[in-house]
Design goal:
Keywords: Cytoplasm, Lipid biosynthesis, Lipid metabolism, NAD, NADP, Nucleotide-binding, Oxidoreductase, Phospholipid biosynthesis, Phospholipid metabolism. The chain has 366 residues and is α/β, with parallel strands linked by helices. It folds into two domains: 175 residues, NAD(P)-binding Rossmann-like Domain (Rossmann fold, 3-Layer(aba) Sandwich), CATH 3.40.50; 163 residues, N-(1-d-carboxylethyl)-l-norvaline Dehydrogenase, domain 2 (Orthogonal Bundle), CATH 1.10.1040.10. The relative contact order is 0.11. It binds NADPH dihydro-nicotinamide-adenine-dinucleotide phosphate and 1,3-dihydroxyacetonephosphate. NADPH dihydro-nicotinamide-adenine-dinucleotide phosphate (NDP) binds next to α1 and α4.
C-alpha cells in the first residue's frame, strides 16, 4: 500500500456519474465542489434539468443545495465524453444493463468505480465483477463505507473506503473525492469492502424490525454485534479479509445503517415489524433497499456452502416465508446454545495481517 500515490500525477478533472439517485448526486456534488467538470447521467429528463438549472434533486435529496456546476443529462455519450473517472451509482438490479448501455463510450484507461451495495441476483456477482466482465478497464474499484447520502450531501464529516487492487484507481478516487468533510481511506480488499456494503443491509432490516417491536439498545447491540460475526464469517469463507470488517466498510457501515432512520433498509424492517407486508413496505419506500434481495441471495448461498448464518436465515423466514418477527426472535433466543461461540481472531494472524491489509489513509493533498 506504499505505492498509493506514486502512480497518480494529477487529480482527475472530468468525472461522469451514472445514476440520478441520492448517492450518485451526493458524490457528483463533492467532485464538482473540488473543481472537476462533472456530468451526471440519469434517465429522467425533468430531474436532469432540475439538477442542471435549479441545482436541486427534489426527488432524492430534498432541501439540499447542489454544486451549481453539475451538468445532468439523459445522453450517455455526452456524459461519458472524455471522462477520466466514472462513478456508477445504479441499484444492483439494473447495474449490468446500465454498464452495457455505457460500454460504447468506456475505454481501458478510465477509472470505473462502483458505489452500489448489492449482489446480482442471477450470478451472485458483486458490482465490480460486473464492471470487469463488461468493460476493458484495468482500473476498477469500489467505494463503500458509512455514507448516508443525505448527511454526506449536507456536509456532515464522513469517511469512506475506496478498494481496488490497482493503486492508480485508489489514488484517483481519493484525489477526486477527498475534501474537508469527506475522508477517503484506501484498501486493497476489493471483495471484502464490497461484500461488507452489501451484507450490512440485511441486518439493518433486522434492527428496524426490533425497533418496531419496541426493543431497546440491548437488543440492537446484540443484533449488530452478532451480525458482524456472521457477515465476516460469510465473507471470509468466500475470500475476504477479516480485518476489513473491523473498518469503515464493515462495522462502520453496519453501525450507521442499523442506527439511523435515514437508512432505507432499516425503514423496510421497521415497516415489516409494524405488521405491514413486504410489498407494501417496498412500495411506500419508493427507493432502493438492497437488503431485501441480498437476504435471499445470502440465505441461499450460505445454505449451499454450509455457512452458519442464524440471523440472515431468520430474516429470510420473516420476509419470504411468513414467519412473524416475534416468533423469529424467540426461535433465535431458544436455539441450541452449543454453537454460541464468539468470533475470535488468532492474535498472530491479526498482528501479521494488520499492517499489510488494513485500510490506510494518506492525504492526497500532501
Ligand atoms: N443512498 C445512500 O445513502 C447510499 C446508497 N448507496 C448505494 O448506492 C446505490 C444506488 O443507490 P441510491 O443512489 O441511493 O439509489 P436511489 O434509490 O436514491 O436512486 C436510484 C437511482 O438509480 C436509477 N435507476 C434505477 N434503475 C435504473 C435503470 N434501469 N436505468 C437507469 N437508472 C436507473 C434511478 O432512476 P429513476 O429515478 O429514473 O428510477 C435513480 O436515479 C445502491 O446500491 C445503494 O446501496 C451507497 C451508499 C449510500
Ligand atoms: O449504505 C448506506 C449507508 O452507508 C445507506 O443505507 P440504505 O441503503 O439502507 O439507506
Amino acid at each position: 500500500m506504499t505505492d498509493t500515490y506514486d502512480s497518480v500525477t494529477r487529480t482527475p478533472e472530468r468525472i461522469a456519474v451514472l445514476g440520478g439517485g441520492s448517492f450518485g448526486t451526493s458524490l457528483a456534488s463533492i467532485a464538482a465542489t473540488k473543481g472537476a467538470r462533472v456530468r451526471q447521467w440519469m434517465r429522467d429528463d425533468a430531474l436532469a434539468r432540475e439538477i442542471t438549472e435549479q441545482h436541486h434533486n427534489s426527488r432524492y435529496l430534498p432541501g439540499i443545495e447542489l454544486n451549481p456546476t453539475i451538468k445532468a443529462n439523459t445522453d450517455m455519450a455526452w456524459v461519458l465524453e472524455d471522462a477520466e473517472l466514472v462513478l456508477i451509482a445504479i441499484p444492483s438490479a439494473s447495474f449490468r444493463a446500465v454498464v452495457r448501455m455505457a460500454r460504447p463510450w468506456l475505454n481501458e484507461h478510465q477509472v470505473l468505480l462502483s458505489t452500489t451495495k448489492g449482489i446480482e441476483e442471477s450470478t451472485f456477482s458483486l458490482m465490480s465483477d460486473i464492471v470487469r466482465e463488461e468493460t476493458d478497464s484495468t482500473h476498477v474499484g469500489v467505494l463503500s463505507g458509512p455514507n448516508l447520502a443525505s448527511e454526506l450531501a449536507a456536509g456532515h464529516l464522513t469517511a469512506t473506503v475506496v478498494a481496488s487492487d490497482d493503486p492508480f484507481t485508489r489514488a484517483s478516487a481519493q484525489a477526486c473525492l477527498s475534501c474537508d468533510y469527506f475522508r477517503v481511506y484506501a484498501s486493497n480488499d476489493r471483495y471484502g469492502v464490497e461484500l461488507g456494503g452489501a451484507l450490512k443491509n440485511i441486518y439493518a432490516i433486522g434492527v428496524g424490525m426490533a425497533a418496531a417491536l419496541g426493543m431497546g439498545a440491548n437488543t440492537k447491540s446484540m443484533i449488530m454485534t452478532r451480525a458482524l460475526a456472521e457477515m465476516s464469517r460469510f465473507a471470509v469463507s468466500l475470500g475476504a479479509s477479516p480485518l476489513t470488517f473491523l473498518g469503515l466498510a464493515g462495522v462502520g457501515d453496519l453501525i450507521v445503517t442499523c442506527s439511523s432512520e435515514l437508512s432505507r433498509n432499516y425503514r423496510i424492517g421497521y415497516a415489516v415489524g409494524e405488521g405491514r407486508t413486504l410489498d407494501d413496505a417496498i412500495e411506500t419506500l419508493g427507493q432502493v433497499a438492497e437488503g431485501v434481495n441480498t437476504v435471499r441471495l445470502v440465505h441461499q448461498r450460505a445454505s449451499q456452502e454450509g455457512i452458519y448464518m442464524p440471523l440472515a436465515d431468520g430474516l429470510y423466514r420473516v420476509l419470504f416465508e411468513g414467519v412473524s418477527p416475534q416468533d423469529m426472535g424467540l426461535t433465535l433466543m431458544r436455539s441450541d446454545h452449543s454453537s454460541d461461540v464468539e468470533f475470535t481472531l488468532s492474535r498472530q494472524d491479526a498482528q501479521r495481517d494488520h499492517h499489510s491489509l488494513y485500510e490506510t489513509n494518506q492525504d492526497p493533498r500532501t
